[in-house]
Structure formats: structure tokens, C-alpha cells
């Protein structure tokens, strides 16, 4: 029996009686998918355990500097808060570095967050030939709002840059640059022995993934990260195996629950 030739999912020629498509992909001639994340390895999100370790390590640098009574405690505190903001509002590295104090505002739908209920991102990724795209990102993580408020009220004033508009200022009175964000991120990542595939952009991917796992509406996430198409948001998303198993059970239970079948 001659095997049909597959072209783009269709069989070339007519299928005669008794002739059936024959699979040509088997376990012995295909590559096994061993990794949970099949997207771009350069932009994979943190696992929750990795993220907790990273943020804890950033906080620890503040304590170490304070105990050693050396310079750098303020900068360490600033950087720890910066990484929390990048994650908790799903920001790119450049978007984070270019934040101003005035970019924070109230959100009538979330009055409990006060003046930090909404973040106005002014330097979103631009389409070629166009100015940076702006967007508003609602605050959704209370612990991150508390971290921002503490930094703005108690830490940033100690830099002595009251007249500077930047959220993240340096000891010399300038604005923290994207390259500096990347350098500090790499230093923390490597000190922890985390995979080199993790980059500052991974914090943004993690925000999308974790909100998806929490059941947040996909359209809300898409608007918050500034994607025009949902397919772009889908590429960012890497839900855990536990989440997939739970979602599967949720989908299967109605079909196998006698009470649900009776009601239908």
C-alpha cells in the first residue's frame, strides 16, 4: 500500500477506498519536549520560587550594607524596590528606569492604594517611526504598593535630589540608566546561581504568567502590558504544571460529575 504524501496537513491526491493516511511522526523519530517552557529561552519567566529568592536577595543586600555601616545601603534599597516595581507592574527595563514620581496616580476603582493606584507608563515600546507608546497600568499587588510608598517617603529623600523628577535617582543626582538596571540584575542573578536565561524582561513575563494563573481576565492583562494583539500576550505566558493540572480537572469535572450531567 502506497503511503500518501502530506503537504501542509492535506493529502496529495485522492484517497481511494482502503487507503488511509499513515502517521509519519513516531517516538523514535521525533525530538522529545523535555522542558516545561518551549518559548524563547532568552525571555523565560521566573518560577515563583526563583522570583522569591531573587527579591529576598535584593532585600538582603540592604541589610548587609546597613550592618557593615558602609555606603551603598540607599542604592541597594532603591534597586530592591526597582525590581519589585518592574515585576508588580509588568514593566520593561527601559520603562522602569524612566519612571518619574509624577507617573503615579490614584485609581477610583482601587482607593485602598491611595496615590499609587495607577502607574502611567510614558516610555512604552514604540512602533517603528512612531513616538513611545503610553499606557496606564492599574496596581494589583498591595505588598508592592507598600514598598513603593515606603521608598518614596523614607528612602528617596535621603538622596538629596528633591528637585529631580526621576523615581530612581543616583547618589550623584542623576537618573538610573537601563544599563545600570541590567548590571545589578545580572550581579544578583549570578550570585544566586540562577539560570542565565533570566533577564530583567523575565520579570515582565512573570507578571503576565502569575496573573494568568490567578485567573485574571486576559484582556485586562493584555491592556496592562500594552500589547495590541492577544497573541503577543500568549507568548509571554508560561503557566506552571500544577496550574495546567488544576485547569484540566476543572474542565473535566463537569463532564464526569453525575450531578452536572443530570442538570444538563
TrEMBL record:
The keyword Glycosyltransferase does not apply. Keywords: DNA integration, DNA recombination. This is Tyrosine-type recombinase/integrase. PANTHER family: PHAGE INTEGRASE-RELATED, TYROSINE RECOMBINASE XERC. It is found in: Cytoplasm. Pfam families: Phage_integrase. PROSITE patterns: TYR_RECOMBINASE (PS51898). It comes from Haloechinothrix salitolerans. The keyword Repressor does not apply. Residues 41-249 form the Tyr recombinase domain. Transmembrane segments: none annotated. Gene3D superfamilies: Intergrase catalytic core.
